Amino acid sequence: MLRRACAIAAALVLCFAMTPRGQTRTVKALVGGTLVDGNGSKPIQNSVVIIDGERVRAVGQVGSLAAPAGAEVISTEGMTVLPGLWDMHVHMQIVGHADYDHWDKTYPPAFESIIFPASAKQLLLAGVTSARDLGGPLDVSISTRDRINAGKIPGPTMYVSGPFIESPQARGGEGRRHQADRSG
User: Fold this and answer.
1) Mean pLDDT of the chain
2) What is the CATH number of the domain that holds 40?
3) In whole angstroms, what separates CA 132 from the centre of its chain?
4) CA dihedral over 133, 136, 138, 141, signed as positive or negative
5) CA distance 31 to 35
6) Are residues 134 and 105 in the same domain?
7) How far is residue 28's CA from residue 163's CA, in Å, rounded to a whole number?
8) Is the torsion defined by CA of 68, 74, 76, 81 positive or negative?
9) What are the start-end ranges of the H helices in the chain?
10) Residue 36 domain flag
11) Are residues 23 and 62 in the same domain?
């Protein structure tokens, strides 16, 4: 009987906590870190950042802003809290590799299942919440972006351009370069 009552109570809490998009809305409080707000203001020591769903609702300091009742409190003591970073030039298919000839011949079969998801997760873990992928294979780039947007794999918001457009003299980069012929 108690287990059933707890299950009903949990279901009611979930029903009331749903956002219009159908996702569970959670309140988090990041407490104790040094906040760099990205607006050029002086860093805030012992900061409190209240996040409600996907929005920052309040910012203050320990002692002047309390975590709301029921909020998940996350200690950021000894850490720097800052807005998500943008990386304006990434190549998810390369993952830091410099031997393009070897990479382009060896890894394309693993792009969609391993390489691109791993790159997206690495960006997110580095604090990058938005990135622009330049010069990648269009189908895999779009698929990765769409899977991130659907919540199927972790990653930042991705803006993708597809392959480079280069002269016929350019070599290498299978799938990430398109040849352009200006002769007409």
Assistant:
1) 82
2) 2.30.40.10
3) 12
4) negative
5) 10
6) yes
7) 40
8) negative
9) 2-16, 100-106, 116-125, 138-149
10) yes
11) yes
Closest by CA position to 84, among listed 166, 31, 157, 18 = 157
Please indicate, yes or no, whether residues 66 and 130 belong to a single structural domain of this protein. Answer: no
Give the integer Cα–Cα distance in Å for 113 and 104: 16
Q: Are 76 and 47 in contact (CB under 8 A)?
A: yes
Confidence class for position 25, pLDDT limits 50, 70, 90: low
* DSSP assignment letter at 41: P
pLDDT in tens, 89-120: 999 988 777 788 888 889 999 999 999 999 99
Domain match, 150 and 93 both: yes
Cβ neighbours of 122 (radius 10 Å): 16
Compute φ and ψ for 120, nearest 5 degrees: -60, -45
CATH number at residue 131: 3.30.110.90
30 and 114, same domain (yes or no): no
DSSP, res 44: B
Q: Which domain holds residue 71?
A: 18-81
Distance, in Å, from the CA atom of 97 to the CA atom of 24, rounded to the nearest integer, reads: 39
pTM: 0.66
Distance (Å) of CA 181 to CA 30, 108, 162, 166, 167: 54, 25, 18, 9, 6
